[in-house]
Amino acid sequence: MIRHKFFLALIFCLLLLPSLAWGMLPETQAGTVITKELAGKYTILELQQEDKKLWVAASGFDAAVGDKIEYMGGVAMVDFYVKSLERTFDEILFLTNIRHAISEEEAAALAAAEKEAAEKAQQGKTTAMPADENHQKVLSEGSVAAPKAGEILKAEAELTVAELFAQREALVDKIVSVRGRVLKLSKNILGRNWATLSDGTGTAPNNVLRITTQQEVIIGKTVSATGMVKIDIDLGAPGYQYPVILEEAMLTP
Predict the structure, then answer these.
(1) With a threshold of 0.90, does the pTM exceed it?
(2) Domains, in order of start, for the chain
(3) In terms of CB atoms within 10 Å, which end of the chain has fewer, N or C?
(4) For residue 6, what is the enclosing H or E element?
C-alpha cells in the first residue's frame, strides 16, 4: 500500500508539475514495440532498443507490435506487481512523455497535407481532400493578427518565443512552456493538430512557433503550451522547414 501511494504521488507530480523537471530531463530515447499488454487504463509495452529490452507503461497511449516510439524521462518501478496480469515486472518505466516516432514518409505526407490544406483555405476552395489515411479529416482554419510586443505576459517559468529560438540548441529534447496567441491552425494532420503561436517577441521569421497537440485549439486564444523541443525539422517540401517545433504540447489557459 505504501509503495502504491508513493507511485501515485510520483505520477501526479510528473503529470501536473512538468516545470519541476526543467533542465534535469534526459535526451529522447527510442525503441520498437515487441510485446503489448493492457492493464486497466495503462498500456504496457516491451521495447527493443539497440542494446537492450525494457518494459514501459503509459496511460492514454496506444501502440501496436512493430511500432517505433520515442519517450523521455519516466519513473522506474522495481519488482512491480500488476494484478490484472498476475505478473511481477523486474523493472518497468512509467511514462508521461511518450509518442509515436514520425518516419520520413509520414513527414513528407504531413508536408503535402498541410500544403493542400493551406492552399484550400487561401483560395476558398470547397473540393474535398483525398480520402487516403494521411489526408483524412484534414482541416485548415484561418488566421488572426499577431500580438504586439508586450501584449502577452508570460509566467516566470515560461519562455518567450524569442528566448526559445535563441536557446533552441541547448533545449533540444527538453520540456518547456511558451505562452502565445494561436494565429493559425491545421487540424487532424497525421492525428495531430498543428498550431502557430506568437507572443510579440522575436524577429521574422523567428517570431512564430509551430506546435503539435492532441487538444482542441481555438484561433485567437492565448494559451500556455508545454511540450518537447525539436529543432531543424524538415518536412520535405518548400516552406516547411522549421528551426524549432514544440511537439505533443499540453495546453492550458
Answers:
(1) no
(2) 2-100 (2.40.50.140), 104-252 (2.40.50.140)
(3) N
(4) helix 2-16
